[in-house]
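Cont'd.
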Amino acid sequence: MAEFNLTAEPFLKGYHRQFDGVGLVEAVDLRIASFACPAGAPAQLEAQAKTGWGIELPAPGASSGSLSNQPLVLGMSPDQWFALFAGQNGYANDKLLSVLGATAYITDQTHNWVALKISGKLARTALERICPIDLDPNRFVPGTVARTLMEHLGCIIFAAGEDEYLLLSASSSANSFLHAVEQSIHNIL
Amino acid sequence: MTQPNRVTGGLINRDAALGFSFNGKSMTGHPGDTLASALLANGQKLVGRSFKYHRPRGIFTAGSEEPNALVQLRRGGHCEPNSRATVVELFEGLAAESQNHRPSLEFDLMAVNDLLSPFLSAGFYYKTFMWPKRFWERVYEPVIRASAGLGKLSMLADPDQYDKGFLHCDLLVIGAGPAGLSAALAAGRAGVRVIIADEDFLPGGRLNLESQSIDGVAGSEWAAACAAELDSLDNVRCMRRMTVFGAYDHGIFGAVERKTDHLAESAGKPRQILWRIYAQRSLVCTGATERAIAFGGNDRPNVMLAGAARGFLNRFGVAAGRRIAVFTNNDSGWRTAADFAKAGLDVAAIIDTRETPRVSGPGDVTNLLGRRVVATSGRKSIRSITLSDGLRLSVDCLAVSGGWSPNLQLTCHKRNRPRWEERVAAFVPGSDPDRGMRVAGAVDGQFTLAGCLRAGQEAGIGAAVEFGRAAPALELPRVEAEGCGITPFWHVAESRGRCWLDLQNDVTVKDVELSHREGFKSVEHLKRYTTLGMATDQGKTANVPALAIMASLTGTSIEKTGTTIYRPPYTPVSIGTLAGRSRGREFRPTRLTPSHEWAHARGAVFVEAGNWLRAQWFPIEGETHWRQSVDREVIATRRSVGICDVTTLGKIDIQGRDANLFLNRVYANGFATLAVGRVRYGLMLREDGIAYDDGTTARLGDNHYVMTTTTANAVLVFRQLEFARQCLWPELDVHLISVTDGWAQFAVAGPNSRALLSKLVTEDISNHAFPFMACGDVTLCGKVPGRLFRISFSGELAYEVAVPSRYGNSMMATLMQAGEEFDAVPYGTEALGVMRIEKGHAAGNELNGHTTALNLGLGRMVSQKKDCIGNVLSRREEMNSPDALRLMGFRPVDRGEELSAGAHFFAKGEARNMQNDQGWLSSAAWSPILGHSIGLGFIRDGANRIGGEVIAADPLRGREVTAEIVSPHFLDPEGERLRG
């Protein structure tokens, strides 16, 4: 078996490009897993998250933790969260399992999503062309997350900073998604 | 050519000249001009021909309501017909052509229609073209089609780019006239997040067209200062060249921003942007449109609206005529005379239908009160007018004002009905245009500048207060007093000639009278019968006078007669804008399989499967026909091993204490006994008992399953399961999440599939350790976690192996590398299809939304021991009749013949009609293993007719084949191969 080797390839080959006022980068080092709360047992899960990570589980649309202080937890629905880890080592579901154990239903999502980071003073202007969400920094404040559609593609948008957003979209249509974002940038410059 | 009608003043940049052409004739204008103002400046009064009678027409308005001055703008694929010259911003190199004439604008042979007008009255086409019947499509339709429409499409692909976008605000102010600017300033200064949009490239609305002053400065200067302040506010977005064309549900508005229409080249940037605006509150400040008076010959070139005439003078420095007369029934017409006189132009007379108007004109201008214009003369431009007292005046322009109609279209888009306001003789918005929508200014019947400024400011302050902001301390600007009196007057009854109402559709007063005589008295009928108010201008200058005439004919008030209401769009929106980026390759997103790059490098031919691109077959050197490739792939797979990317199948991760119960309810067959480490085929029914989807579900743990669905139904099934989980059985502990994209999955099929996989999988996958329908987590190449399922679509010993999708491309290469010693081949969807037909497996062709489990030969799978979706209705008698359709195999009696999918079955000797139809062939393929054509299809009572013969008739392809009914399992009916 030694003669065979499998290698992982980024969906967009590690795309990164700096436009005038907008940076666009494929985030290749994200590990993602979803976890859901068993019916009737939120207290156990909340306690486990508090103990293991020191965070409160966020409401839908909000987030807790951060990538630097592993993990960043995004509230996706009343009983479902996404946990994001930075770094290429280990598997996200293993990382979750070690903390949450049987208090949650865990599914690795790392390979479901392509991740793009868009940043810069014109990032919002570019996103205005494809994102139906109101990204006014006073409303979609850093730390906010939303599910939406961009150019017919399902997407999760997370405000990572005042002018910085993390976009997650289905990995099979990664090229179409990148094209949509690139085109938006091109159209506003 | 010089600009003979250019006079002093205006808001144009005279330091720069712009060259343009009209019908190939070179002309010049200035930045700040519209095409209409530049044409007038150059003395071009005749600009188009009317729709029906091809009468010569000139520029009638100065805004987006223009009915006459429609041109073909730009050339080649960039050409846009029906462009309104009054809103086209002039640019260097602009090329425009007039429309609707043969051969030329000046000499139009089609003007013969004008002579035939007695035969072409309103609704003539409802009474003609009736016979002979054979002329309907051969003669009448081609002739009518050739005559229809004004402009002509280039028939070339539009090379321009378009985009769309989303905007959000607290307050959307629609219109940047005096009311809109005042409102935006008040709300903006208070900190409200405001978007103010205006269709013009210069904010100000009528302030730019009038000579009135505000706070001691010209109205246009005041508007410019307001716009500058709004531009400086971070919380305000002042959007020029943007038309809000529709009001929709939940505070959503549609708008078109013309980004590069004013430039010669778009330079690869979007020409127009379709915006969806989400507004918590909206303020409609869309102003009003002047309307005409109907009198004989009122359609001649250079008969124009009085407000337009003074607008061209004040904004563009263009004198529409050197000797002008004004015909009015209201005070605003007098301003035209005053402005022309002030500019040193000759005003022949002010003709007012009122005996005693409370307004005064320039001292040296003749006032003819209580009189009417009854006729005009001139062919390609007006030369004279004749009044009701017989007086004849020589003029080269007649400015007409019949009053003003509020631009209330947006307030009607949610079915709010306008109400008649006698004070201004106009329809104004109804009391409740929409939740969150307000109106201010002329649109609300405030026809004085002071009234507009006050209403706008109050509305802006009101919005600020609604959003919890402190009302800014503002003073009302000072303006001169003005009159806005009107005595309604619609039609000069003593006119002998045709009195035009709708210039774009050639609708006259006589047409309205005919409509009334024939019983089409309702405003909706009037519109359809006469075409009043249709096409690009939607009758903005014509509707109210026509309704008034109908009211007088019926002897009722205008209020009781009512008005038609409006739908979006307010002004025309090009189809390209609505399409946005969704054209060509970008019509929809493309999904790629994880091994796409590998397949592409191998020269695979791809096929679209929904949004997916799938490898259809992999041609190799020497193969010249797809069948050669597919036959080779099938034979190689059945002989040794083949590999196919099946990632496109939907995958749903299902977890929860009640997951087992949940699956047992959504599948028709039993899942309660599925053991950990095992896979089961499952069939889903719709509520009505029809087969919905099929696939396999693997049990990975006590509370953990992964379901596969068909590629086509992946999203639908997920949605259905979420509906069941959230709405049907919320008490169950079940959680779903899609993992379709997360796992790259490959079918490895053929007698050597186990041997191949054994080289890559760490775990024991012998038949004993990993039997048919086993599943489990495995390790690949010693390090990568994967999943293995022993399932088979091909009928061979087969597996599906899954790895995290970033490893997919590498996995395909590795499988091929490991398979070299077995002569492994990649195979595509065609070979996949051939093998599943040989095996008798149903796919999308069979699960077509019309077939039942019984039809599919899966009737016994529908468990009667449990409740599940579709169970009850699947028991309906008709769905279980003894002679129900059954999925069977078919092969041509003459093995040299070829079956074709879609053929219908008939008994020999029976007519090929619906009554005798016995079923249809749903799938067909050439079997390289059997050496002849085979097919799957549905036929009545099929299970009892094995060995029988039927005619497979394919009238679309003109083919008939005698086919034998056989078992659907052409190959290995006992399943020995897949269990081996």
